[in-house]
Amino acid sequence: MGKISSKDLGEEPIGKLLIKQAVPASIGILVMSLNILIDTIFVGNWIGSIAIAAINVVLPVSFFIAALGMAIGIGGSSIISRALGANNHQKALRTFGNQITLTLIVTLTFVTAGLIFVDSIVPGFGGKGAIFDPAKVYYVVVLYGVPVLALCMMGNTVIRAEGKPKFGMVAMMIPSVGNLLLDYIFINLLDYGMYGAAWATTGSYFLCFVYILWFFRSGNSELKLNWKHLALQRDIVKEIGALGFVTLARQAVVSITYLFVNNILYHLGGESSVTVYAIIGRMLMFALFPVLGVTQGFLPIAGFNYGAKMYGRVVESINIAIKYAALLALLVFIFIMLFPDTIVRVFTTDAEVVNQTPSAMRWVFAATPIIAIQLIGAAYFQAVGKAIPALLLTLTRQGFFFIPLILVLPNFYGELGVWISFPIADLLSTLVTGFYLNKEIRLKLKREVPADS
């Protein structure tokens, strides 16, 4: 494939363009998800099932802080895509420089606070009983590398905003492959236990950072920064914050969800129930990689064409993205429904966990075929810079529906109440998102499509 320019986002056929953007994104997410999956398998088999639960406790905290970088990245990348579409290169440069400065300031602040209050945070997220000690070990070491991870996540979104998904794919693959190699060395060969698992994860973040730094300092990027671009500008910071808050709010709600679910399950079934959720959480990350890849591929296409006022292409990109994502989601659903027992036995041989997980997994994935509308719909509003509807639609599933459901249903149905909350929230959020997305297409996009488009 020849050298890619951001202008391709406004010229190539949407179907071909979406595949070109989505396939590398999907591969990157697949490798990253496989890393999490295999990392969990290694930890479960080499350290023990309690270690799986310990990592599950730490992930929402570390991912939330890292998601600050992703939030700044996605918020700024929406601006960059639209600026490139409108041929405003200077605004794209200023935005990228502001993203770097914001990411460093915000993540270092949160990491410092996270290390100071470690003994309160770990048990607060379900790290109790036998889970506390290994969770604390993992938490402290991983937090050291979280600012670097945040810079990587921010940089990756900018790479995609430039229309260079293959480089973004490599950036996602490097930490995944590195983590697995370091896992084998630190856990299996050197027998460092949870310290080994934590340092393998942290070390992989630094490998990714080196690659992303190389990308932006080489001739591959259109964004050549000067020191002046790093100076914060109020208008840009405000726009990054408004759009980035959508991603941050989503990750905050995910972290709160983990907090509630881990504590509810610990109360209902102890460590084994928390482990069941940890395994299902890994499968949610892994199995949905092609759907998330389509969503990632869709973002720069929608943003660039909206910025260029090519609304017909925006509508076309929405329709094609939903079709592709829905088909892939259906295949994921079939796979999960047919092979849950086989999947669980890969992670652990703990009889109690093996018995509980398949049924729970089927419930959690029950509404998977319809989630494409919710994902693409929320992504559209973020891509085109409409922060408030993007925020509200992003929060519908877990914030407005799922959290209230898990606080109520377990009182009547026990652990089953937790698991059935997932598909009910998926269904309700899809209905709401579909309504508002259809309204946006009819009242905004189709009215502004030129007659010759």
Query: Tell me, what's the shape?
Result: globular
Helix content bin: over 70%
| Radius of gyration from the alpha-carbon trace, in angstroms | 21 Å
> What order do the SSEs take from the amino end to the carboxyl end, as H and E?
HHHHHHHHHHHHHHHHH
Number of helices: 17
State the separation between the terminal residues, measured CA to CA: 28 Å
Count of β-strands: 0
Average predicted local confidence, pLDDT: 83
Indicate the low-confidence ranges by residue numbers: none
Taken as a percent bin, the fraction of beta residues is: under 5%
How many separate domains make up the residues? 1
- Chain oligomer state: single chain
Question: From the helix content, strand content and strand pairing, which structural class follows?
Answer: mainly alpha
Question: Major sheet: size, sense and barrel closure?
Answer: none
Fold and architecture overview:
The chain has one domain (6-448). The protein contains 17 helices and no strands. It has helices at 14-46, 49-85, 89-116, 118-124, 132-161, 165-189, 193-217, 234-269, 271-287, 289-307, 311-338, 340-347, 351-364, 371-383, 387-408, 410-413, 415-445. Helix 9 (271-287) packs across helix 13 (351-364). It is globular and about 60 Å long. It starts with 13 loop residues before the first helix and ends in an 8-residue tail after the last helix.
Could you give a short description of this structure?
With 453 residues, the chain is an all-alpha fold. Helix content is 83%, strand content 0%.
Set out the fold topology.
Blueprint: H1 14-46, H2 49-85, H3 89-116, H4 118-124, H5 132-161, H6 165-189, H7 193-217, H8 234-269, H9 271-287, H10 289-307, H11 311-338, H12 340-347, H13 351-364, H14 371-383, H15 387-408, H16 410-413, H17 415-445
